């Protein structure tokens, strides 16, 4: 059973550097990192010390608020360094990988014979429980809660996103196993959204034990938050969980092989990628392992774990995020521009507002950089956000409520339904250069603190 939802608003950013569907490198990292900063609201407790030996699947961190939630090592090796920031905030646990990998044996499980508690126990002990993101707020799912439903987006419309059909073509059996397992965790079952462009051609449509929804439209049609808004909006007091196909594949491998296996195909993309393609990598791998794909010297290139709208500026010395299977290489926009935006005939720049002539070449791809083309200024009241946000909320009023720390209005204008990724396009098209995602993040943090 499925339904069709056509979204009229949105924007596909025409950035160059789409990865060709070929795997051109196998990354064997010397060091990988487990990063507490990948998870909102996590208060990490260290379970290892420098010099300790670990296996792939050995606990490295635990959540102080929910000690049963563990974070495990993606490789076997030795804890090489514990990196801290200001006020001794834990940033990374770096693990020097062994040449030959050894795994904790969690045992092969027959999902059909497991109940919800048994499934939950396996996921918690293995370190894969953090794969579930709970909405509202985008935090790690609470194991004590039974959510209204679990949602999966089987397509990604973010700029230069990895192709799911290519990435998961060998993982469908594992994904089916994962769906059979996690469907026991919710009374509302698993809801999966497909793109109308290839809903009958994608292998995802053959999956069982799911409710399908078909979406058409531009980005952010692939965002699971936008999909939830149109399938079953989150009301005050309700809870839903989301999980990505990437994490479903890892969960399926856990039940089918008994191993915590975080290997993945990673798309190396972006205007500064000399050969956009896929590499075989692993969660927490160093960005330096893909530096040989850069056109220019690494100090002039921004290494982004994720996409250009919502990814993390990891830097060349950083590491791939827990939930990411994309690296974007984009030039740092440091050059001074004569006349700025007022310069005429700027055929090499894209403009959503038709300031330039990019609207005459709708199929052109642009070598974009990080230049903001202006600085923050007064919050302009306009309908520009509404043109790219296919949700029935008022983004301007929501962001102003976040700025004013007005919890009642934040609730009224939809704070429970959105995360930063859902308003990322609003920030991209904002004529005032307002840091909308940062403001929304502060608002969500306030809600978590005051509504706990």
UniProtKB/TrEMBL annotation:
Superkingdom in the source lineage: Bacteria
GO MF term list: oxidoreductase activity, acting on NAD(P)H, quinone or similar compound as acceptor
Catalyzed chemical reaction(s): a ubiquinone + n Na(+)(in) + NADH + H(+) = a ubiquinol + n Na(+)(out) + NAD(+)
Record GO biological process: sodium ion transport
Enzyme Commission numbers on file: 7.2.1.1
Keywords: Ion transport, NAD, Sodium, Sodium transport, Translocase, Transport, Ubiquinone
Ranges for domain NqrA second alpha/beta: 114-259
Domain Na(+)-translocating NADH-quinone reductase subunit A C-terminal per the UniProt entry, residue ranges: 266-314
Enzyme class, first EC level, given as a word: translocase
Domain NqrA N-terminal barrel-sandwich hybrid: 5-98
Family affiliation: Belongs to the NqrA family.
Subunit details: Composed of six subunits; NqrA, NqrB, NqrC, NqrD, NqrE and NqrF.
Function: NQR complex catalyzes the reduction of ubiquinone-1 to ubiquinol by two successive reactions, coupled with the transport of Na(+) ions from the cytoplasm to the periplasm. NqrA to NqrE are probably involved in the second step, the conversion of ubisemiquinone to ubiquinol.
Full protein name: Na(+)-translocating NADH-quinone reductase subunit A
Gene: nqrA
